[in-house]
Structure prediction request, 413 residues.
Amino acid sequence: MRIAGSRQTASSPTCDPAASRRSVASPAIGSGSPRVGWAPVWTATLKPADRAALDPGIPDDLDRHPDVLVVGGGVMGLAAAVFCRRAGLGRVLLIEADRLASAASGGAAGALAPELHHLTDPPAFVQLARSSLALYRQLAQQWNATRLLRWAPGLLLLPDGPPPGLRPWPEVELLDAGQAAELVPDLVPMPAALLARDQARVHPLRLAVALARRAGSVATGVAMTGLQTAGDRIVRVRTTAGVLHPGVVVFATGLAPTPWVSVPQRLVKGHLVATEPVGFRLPCGIHLPGFGIGSLEYGGLLAGGTREEGDRSPQVRDEVIGFIRRRLGELLPAARSARVRHRWCCFRPATADGQPVIDRVAGLGNAWVSAGHDGTGLLLAPATGRALAAWIATGQAPPQVRNFDLARFARSG
Ligand SMILES: Cc1cc2nc3c(=O)[nH]c(=O)nc-3n(C[C@H](O)[C@H](O)[C@H](O)COP(=O)(O)OP(=O)(O)OC[C@H]3O[C@@H](n4cnc5c(N)ncnc54)[C@H](O)[C@@H]3O)c2cc1C
Prediction:
C-alpha cells in the first residue's frame, strides 16, 4: 500500500542548512515521561513471560529503513503500530526509550468508561471514546483474548444530587438513593448516581503485551535523540541505537516532542493504591471527579486517581496515600480497615485544554503526533491508532479526530 506523505522515491540523506539547524542532540526528545513511581499492582500480577515481552531489547536485525517509525512504547505508540500494520503500511518499527508501558500506560487504573465523560467532555471526545471501546470489544474477540477486558457497569456518584437540568442520555440510568444502595450495598448513602452499563476495565500491562505482539518490530531501550529534516520531511531520526531513515514517523511520546511539535502541555501526577483482599466484590466501577474505586481479580480494591498538579517528583507521597485511604473508607465503610498492598504514582501527559492532540505535524508531510491523552489514553488508544493509520494511508484526516488538531491552541490565542 502507498503511504500518503511517505517518500515516493528513495530520498537522499543530504539535508539543507535549515534542516541541520533543526537537528537536536541528546537528551532524548520527548523524554518528559517519568517512570511509574514504585511498582503498580499490574507488575505483580503479570506472568514472567509477559514481563519479558515488555522489554525485548534491540533486535539483531534492527530495521533502519522502516516504512513507519513509531516513537514511544506507551499504549498510544503500541496501538498506532498495531493499526499501521493492520492497514498494510509496510514495515513498522517502534522504539521505546525504556521498556514498553513504563510510564503512565503501565500505571493507569485501566477504566474504559466513555459514558462517564458525557457530562465533562465535548461530544467529539465521547464519540471517539465510544468507538474506541467498541473497537476494544472487536479486538478482544479477534485475538481470542477472553481475559483482556472485564465488562462491568460504571457508576458515577452524584453526592450533591443530580445537577440542575440533568437529562440522562440513552446509555445511562439515573439512580436514586435507594437504587444506588441496592446496587452497591457497601456504599455510603448517596443521594443519586448515574449508572452506565457495558463499560470495561483492562489490565494495562496485559494490554501492552497483547498490543506488542502485533506491533511489528519493537526495540526497547532506544531513545530518539534528534531529527533531521529536508524540506517538509523528516529524513533521519537519530537514536541511541544509531540513525534511522523512516518513511513516516508517528510521535507517541506522551508529551508531544518539542521543539518539533509545539503544544501547551504539562504532566499531571496521580496516585493509586491496591488493597489486600476485602472479602466483598464491587458489582461496578465507582467514579467521582478525581477518584475511582474498582475490584481487582484477586479480591483487593483499586482506589485513587488523584491529580497533583505541579508535583514532578517520582516519589509516592504518604499524605496522598493517606487521603486515598480515608476517601476509600468514607465511600465504602467496609473497606475502612483494608490494608494497602501496592501504592504507586505516575504522570498523565496533558494539554492546556485537557483534550488530546491527534494530528499531522505542521510543516512536516511525513510526521504525525498522538499526545496529551491526560487521564484517558488507555480508553482512546485503539480508536486513535486506527485513525492515525487511516490518515497515513489515505492522506485524509479522519473526521473523528478533526477536533484534536494542533492549530486549536493557536486559534484560542
Ligand atoms: C493515576 C492515573 C490513572 C489513570 N487511569 C486511567 C484510566 O483508568 N483509563 C485511561 O484510559 N487512562 C488512564 N490514565 C491515563 C493514561 O495512563 C495515559 O493517558 C496514557 O497512558 C498515555 O499513553 P501514551 O502512550 O500517550 O504516553 P506514555 O504512557 O507516557 O508513553 C510514552 C512513552 O514514550 C516514551 N518516550 C518518550 N520520549 C521518547 C523518546 N525520545 N524516544 C523513545 N521513547 C520515548 C516514554 O518512555 C514512554 O514509555 C491514567 C493516568 C494516571 C496518571
